[in-house]
């Protein structure tokens, strides 16, 4: 099975041999791929909506893997029991929804060995939440697909020291390894912020003045992050 670049990057972070739970599974592509490759012995494909779950069931039946992949209608990990999974994937949704799922699923997630997270937004808030909830960011990756940047992280239980503002915003592991995709992302953000600044400077209105201060602060953080690549 050929996964998209984003889903391939997510699946590669799953530890081989893990019992997998995929939250927001949609078509069930990640569980299918990992089971077919023999990297996980079995999986639970979960989704809050019946439609995506039916599509996952069809895909699972097409490959004859009903004995290895279960499907469950579930709001986050509410239908996951303690000790049922070693690795939980939460990918392709907004950052605040990821935080909500991890908050509501604290009990079930206590026995999970790793979380593979791919928030679509609000990465800084997700990383701050992880630090407060005593999760460690062990690994990060970022891919560019169809003009969009997708950060991915593998986290485990354990105390993590406070990060810097730049690390919360752009990822401690991505910065430490000078990830080439992060560099490209920062270059794109810098160019975009510079263009917005020029537009706001021409406007001269009171509202644009306040907005200009906000954008200049964002631009400064981007440039500070880019210094890590020197």
In a nutshell, what does this entry contain?
By secondary structure, the chain is an alpha/beta fold. The protein contains ten helices and seven strands.
Give a verbal description of the structure:
There is one protein chain. With 230 residues, the protein is of the alpha/beta class. It is built from ten helices and seven strands. It has helices at residues 5-12, 29-36, 50-62, 95-104, 106-109, 123-132, 165-170, 172-176, 180-203, 206-226, and strands at residues 20-23, 43-47, 69-73, 87-93, 114-119, 135-145, 148-157. It has a seven-stranded mixed β-sheet with strand order 3-2-1-4-5-7-6, sandwiched between helices. Helix 2 (29-36) links the parallel strand 1 (20-23) and strand 2. The longest helix is centred in the C-terminal third of the chain and has 24 residues, at 180-203. It is elongated. The mean pLDDT is 96.
Number of strands: 7
Structure class: alpha/beta
Report mean pLDDT, rounded to a whole number: 96
Gross morphology is: elongated
End-to-end Cα distance: 39 Å
Number of helices: 10
* Percentage of residues in DSSP E strands: 15-25%
Strand order of the biggest β-sheet: 3-2-1-4-5-7-6
- Low-pLDDT ranges: none
Largest sheet data = 7 strands, mixed
Order of helices and strands: HEHEHEEHHEHEEHHHH
Radius of gyration: 19 Å
Secondary-structure map with pairings?
Layout: H1 5-12, E1 20-23, H2 29-36, E2 43-47, H3 50-62, E3 69-73, E4 87-93, H4 95-104, H5 106-109, E5 114-119, H6 123-132, E6 135-145, E7 148-157, H7 165-170, H8 172-176, H9 180-203, H10 206-226
Helix pairs in contact: 1-2, 4-6, 9-10
